[in-house]
Amino acid sequence: MVGRAGGGAAGTGPVAVTGMGVVSPAGADEYGLWKALLEGRSTARTLGALAGLPVDFGCPVDGFDLDEAVGGRSVYRMARFVKLAVLAARQAVADAGLDPNGWDGARVGVVLGVGVGGVSALVDNARRFDAGGPEAVSPLLVSMMIPNAAAGEVAIALGAGGPSLAPATACASGATALAVGRDLLTSDQCDVVVAGGAEAVLTPLVVTAFARMGALSTRTAEPALASRPFAPDRDGFVIGEGAALLVLERPGDARARGARVRALLAGAGSATDAHHPTAPDPEGRGARRAVEAALRQADWVPADVGHINAHGTSTPLNDAMESGLIARLFPHRPPVTAPKGAVGHTLAAAGAIEAVATVLALEHSLVPPVANLEAPAEGLPLDCVTGGPRLLRAATGLSHSFGFGGHNVALAFQRA
Q1: Residues 6 or more apart from 60 whose CB is under 8 A from it?
Q2: Are 4 and 10 in contact (CB under 8 A)?
Q3: Which of 311, 335, 309 is nearest to 413 (CA)?
C-alpha cells in the first residue's frame, strides 16, 4: 500500500511541490534539463579556465548572460552561486503561480543548501590582498563568500521574512534543504517554503583540490564520456554547477488556492555514517537508515518504491555502496537512473536538481537513461535504465543524496 490518506507518521503528512525552478549545465530551465536527461546527453566539456590542470573539464552553466537574466542593481554584489539561486527561485515561484507582492512574507521560508559558497570571490580578493594590500580588498567580500548569502539574497528577492536557513551537508545539501523545508511546513512555522540548493565552484583551485584527493575522473581526452555512473570503468565524478529550488506547501493550502500540485514530497530521512571524512561506509549503514526513515515517514514499505534516482557519482566507492544498498533494500529491482552522467556532480545543488528530475519522471511517466552507461559493472546488481527512457508505471520515486562527511538524505516523492 502506498501512503494512507494524510500519509506518514502522526502530525506530519506529505507536502505538495507546487513549483520548480532549475538552472543546470543542460540549460536555464527544467525543459533543458529534462531533454538532456531523456537523451542521455553529457554536458561535460573541456574548459579554458582549467587549461593546464590535471583535470581540465567540467559541466558549466552557459549559453546565456547570467547577469542579464538576474538583472537589477543588486547583481553586482552577488557571487555566481547566488545569481544561480536567485534565478532558479524566481522560476520556481512563478511556476507555482505565486506572487511575492501578494503573500504574507512572514509565513514564507527559504532553505537553500550550499556546500562551499563564494570561493571565487575569496580567491580573487586573496590575490588582490597579496598584490595591493588591505585597501585592495573589496568591502563586499564577506557578503559574497559566505555560504548563507544565497539564502539571504533569495529571501530579499522574494520578500520572504520567515526562517532563512542554509544547511551545509556537502553533496547532500540540496536534499537536506528540502527535508528541512518539509519540517517547517508540517510544524506550522511556514505556509510556503522555497527550498533547494546552489553551487558554482568550477574554479582552478577547487577542481584541483578535488582532483588531488582522487575524486575526479581523469578522462581528459573524452570529457563527454567521463561521468559514467555504475559503469565498469568509472573513475570519478565530473564537477558541474547549477541551482534548483522547489516551492513546497501543505496540500490543503495548495488546493485552496487552486494551485497545480506537481508531486507530493511524502517523506524525508537523514542519517550520518560516522565513518570517514570522505569515503562512504562500504556497508551503507547510514544510507540505509536515511532511506528507511524516508519510507517510514511516507508510510511506504520497500516494495512501494517504483523508481530510484540514484546519487550515482561515478566513483568506485559510492557506486558500489549504493548498488549494494539498493539490492538489499529493494529486491523487486525498481528501475534506476543517475542524472550525474548527464549534468555532472553539481555538489550542493545535486540533491535539488535530482529532486526536480524525480518529479519530472513521475509527471511524464518516464525514467531517463543513465548517460554513458551500457550496463552496470559486474557485482552491481541494479536495473539501470540504459539506451533510452523507460515507461514508468509506478506512482512513486525515491531520490538518494550522499555527501562528504557521511551525510545521507533520502526523499520520497509520490505522483500527485
Answers
A1: 25, 43, 45, 47, 202, 240, 241
A2: no
A3: 309
Q: pTM of the full predicted structure?
A: 0.95
Q: Which of 307, 345, 400, 407 is catalytic?
A: 345
- Among 190, 307, 311, 400, the active-site one is 311
| Alpha-carbon span 74 to 228, nearest angstrom | 39
Whether 345 sits among the annotated catalytic residues: the reply is yes
* Over residues 352-378, mean pLDDT: 98
Q: What are the pLDDT digits (tens) for 71-80?
A: 999 999 999 9
Kindly state the cell numbers that stand for 388: 533510452
CB atoms closer than 10 angstroms to residue 152: 16
List the one residue out of 373, 337, 335 whose CA is nearest residue 226: 373
307 is catalytic: no
Residue type, 350: A
- Residue pair 244/22 in contact by the 8 Å Cβ criterion: yes
Residue 171 falls in the annotated catalytic set: yes
For 301-332, how does the pLDDT look when each residue is reduced to its tens digit (9 = 90+)? Answer: 999 999 999 999 999 999 999 999 999 999 99
